Amino acid sequence: MTLHENEIPADETLVRSLLKAQRPRWADLPLSPAGAGTDNTMYRLGDDLLVRLPRTADTGRAVRKEQEWLPRLAPRLTCRVPEPVHAGTPTAAFPHAWSVHRWIDGAEAGPDTVRDWAAFGTDLAAFVRELHHVDLMGATRADALSWYRGGTLGPCDEWVGKALADCRSTVGPALDVDTLERLWRDALTLPEPAGTHVWLHGDLKPTNLLVRDGRLHAVIDFGALSLGFPDAEHAALWDLPPLAREAYRDAMNLDDTTWLRARAWAIAVGVSGISCYWHTFPAFVAECRARLRAILTDAAGR
User: Fold this and answer.
1) Per the database record, which ranges form the Aminoglycoside phosphotransferase domain (predicted)?
2) In the beta sheet, which residues pair with residue 52?
3) pLDDT digit string (tens) for 213-236?
4) pLDDT above 80 for 3
């Protein structure tokens, strides 16, 4: 399944050719699909490895960012994060950087894997606090470490407005787009965030949170790693049940203004996901719709 016009499809034949050229001792290990997102395609390699292939040149730059920064961040984090063990180089057949990581056992966070959602929200908050307090190690908000989600809401208004309009024409009355737009516009009037920039994971949705024995075990997919204000980091909380969301907010001690900005970021990501992937990635659209419904339910109850 291709999602982008400039995407180079990755299949088992391509992966084996890359391995034969660059890591021949791994080339004959068992290989099986291990999931695909909007930015990357993954294959499990043997019992202990994961091949990660970006879909486009832009996400290839994100792969190089992971290769550079994950080894520096990992020793400073209690929760397990991906460990790159091979930095794949571009070839004629696949002109992007690619990676091999250690395989991390675990299941996606969900109702069948999490035992206690309040405890899960507290554990996730502990990871976020820890990440946000890691020294910047000389990094600045520039180039690959500069992403819109670490900035302010105002510069995003034009494309969010277009995405809201797209949602009206695609989802239609099944989603209360008028209320979502009102919540977004109300957030634009809030004071802008202040303070220093911090490390941001950038995409803490359930598919990037691995669970073992009912508890948070690992955080994966650092392709959106950046520096910036932390508000958007909290946006994925509307992908989790209310118990997790409230426990996280309490553990982080987030004030009302920060929480409303975080909700606005959640709206922005949700409507843009529907707009961009309505025709190509229905599973991801369903995730975005669920997030937006949670926002509307949450807002109606306050």
Assistant:
1) 32-265
2) 42, 99
3) 999 999 999 999 999 999 999 999
4) no
Range(s) of the chain covered by CATH 3.90.1200.10 = 111-300
Would you say residue 34 has pLDDT above 80? yes
pLDDT above 70 covers a percentage of the chain that reads 98
Check: pTM over 0.90? Answer yes or no.
yes
User: What local confidence, expressed as pLDDT, does residue 1 receive?
Assistant: 60
Please write the tens of the pLDDT for every residue from 70-125: 999 999 999 999 999 999 999 999 999 999 999 999 999 999 999 999 999 999 99
Residue range(s) of every CATH 3.30.200.20 domain in the chain = 12-102
Tell me the CATH number for domain 111-300. Answer: 3.90.1200.10
Using the structure block, give the residue that is written with the tokens 């787009």: 177
